[in-house]
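Chapter review. Work through the record for Allene oxide cyclase barrel-like domain-containing protein before attempting the end-of-chapter questions.
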Amino acid sequence: MKTTVAILLLSALALANAQSICKKSFTVTENYVEKTSALVGCTDAECTYAFSNPLVVGTSASGKTKAGDNIGTCTVFSSTAAGENRSYCMMSLKTPSGIINFGGEFPDFKNGDFTMPVTGGTGAFLGASGAVRCQVVKPGYTWTYTVSLTKAPTCASRRI
Ligand SMILES: *[C@@H]1O[C@H](CO)[C@@H](O)[C@H](O)[C@H]1NC(C)=O
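Structure tokens for Allene oxide cyclase barrel-like domain-containing protein:
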């Protein structure tokens, strides 16, 4: 009986977490984690990194509601004297409801604010299109993404 209650409670929490981002528009924040990032390699001109960083719901880096992970690769093609990088990135927001793929030029600068296209999705986000606005909270460490899809995802009536 206690186990059933615990399982129901955990399912309800998982559902609440999933539903808070299974929307036409939502915001998540990514926090860089060193141990899940790796240098893929460098040429004379640029370096490429692969990473998987956790996402939380909302605009705060210390948000407590997990939203999934941002997984991707970035190729740094220029750097400023201050060590800020301009990259080309391809990324996947991996959420409990499905994946949203997006990417493009990524100027990882202080107060950076730019928009990248959504290129597709899976699960509730199958066939996704739209845009992802990125606001750089701290270059190299924290970024907020506001996803704006052209159509609502198909998760509202779905069990996860
Ligand atoms: C910028 O890129 C360089 C190497 O390509 C890397 O060592 C450095 O950590 C990057 N800086 C930030 C802020 O991510």
